[in-house]
Input
Amino acid sequence: MTHTTKDRVLIFDTTLRDGEQSPGATMTHEEKLEIAQLLDEMGVDIIEAGFPIASEGDFRAVSEIARQARNATICGLARANFKDIDRCWEAIRQAKSPRIHTFIGTSPLHRAIPGLTQDEMAERIHDTVTHARNLCDNVQWSPMDATRTEWEYLKRVVEIAIKAGATTINIPDTVGYTAPVESADLIRRLIAEVPGAEEVVFATHCHNDLGMATANALAAVAGGARQIECTINGLGERAGNTALEEVVMALKVRGDIMPFETGVDSRKIMHVSRRVASVSGFPVQFNKAIVGKNAFAHESGIHQDGMLKNAETFEIMRPEDVGLAATNIVMGKHSGRAALRAKLKDLGYELADNQLNDIFVRFKDLADRKKEVYDEDLIALVNAGLDAESDRLQIRHLRVVCGTEGPQTASLTMEIDGQEVSTEATGDGPVDATFNAVKKLFPHEARLQLYQVAAVTEGTDAQATVSVRMEEDGRIVTGQSADTDTVVASARAYVHALNRLLVRRDKTGGDAREISYKDVS
Ligand code: KIV
Ligand code: ZN
Output
């Protein structure tokens, strides 16, 4: 059956809250503002900007995003207590359209943590939703672990939340346990059986532990949900959340059987995906649907032949629909500033003049070392430049002596909080020597968990992207950088990770204990 009229499904992006909660995905304040602006521009309906009570940093980021957003509703998360809700309201109240999102774990396992009986929890839900609604007209309530909550109790608490004034009821599949048939059925039955259900919007919030988050979210829409909660690249704890790009493109491509539309401009997807991958330090797997490097690549002879004759033989959507430029015009050392600006605009980057100047110098330097500069090279270069902008630790000069006769020696100059400092260190190989030099200039106890190198393009002059993951007292951070010189890229990635560690220390007040979602009091 082909449908002609389409219902609107709201897109609720939680990259900055549920996504950033993922160990290692810490973003700086400036990065959060940048991602929020990109989400706002791409047409996301609601941005969950953070968890204001969690830290001063979260509060500041949510407040500033609330002030800066032009179109989207700005939402903050709060546990089921007045203190959280008041702090959340304080952070979002200046938004054109603010929303308080309050939640409590309703399944038997989650009720056991605060030790509340069913009745005590029901009363808590009534009181906290009422309190939130007295502050804000737009209140979302979530029974965390809804898909493992007893059916009768779930119905009861959803009704209480609606009566207390919730305007959106979100049904989280917190541990990615549900399956599509069940997901559709759950929403359908709640809408049919809970008094007052027709007055509110039902939302779906799926985790991807069994790889079914997108399918579950779309099934929930078929069951009557009209808000999908998701993150860019499916970022999130464990196996992540529903991926925004997947639900948006699935609804677009299969509008014939899923007659729903979103307000998202799909042509902005690729750029936002790359920026989130870069600032979160979570690279996108090559074969990831929609945004993976290979999502539109056709390698086999039969496929290539078919594509040349008629792209529709092997493509259900056009690369341009997700913002992949149709041509890959190669830049070189003769390309000027205007050409670079135009190229970067095509790739989704609108840079301020000072940022462009800085990138232009780095581009010329790269073009001197590399004959052809491809889109991927520019993206890696710009991302590395933007990510390092607000960093407290910066690499200034690095010279490494290496070869068959050791020990390898690194001479390093860094800027630490505006002060230049230099040192020399040896090590077991050039990367080890460089990391030892960084450690001498900025002593720390963080442990290197992962060191990974990948080539951005082909050829021996290709840039290398280096990812570094570090751990300190339970805090995990990742850093990334790219350069034609693998050792330079390694040094920058290591320092990038250390910068994130500083942000993370600020967030937890020098204490690894982060505020727990399970702690409702
Ligand atoms: O997964 C979950 O249950 C959540 C809630 C806080 C909505 O993220
Ligand atoms: Zn979640």
Summary: Residues 18, 172, 174, 205, 207 surround zinc ion (ligand 2) (CB under 6 Å). DSSP finds 17 helices and 16 strands in the chain. Residues 7-280 form a domain with the TIM Barrel fold (CATH 3.20.20.70). Residues 308 and 405 are 53 Å apart (CA to CA).
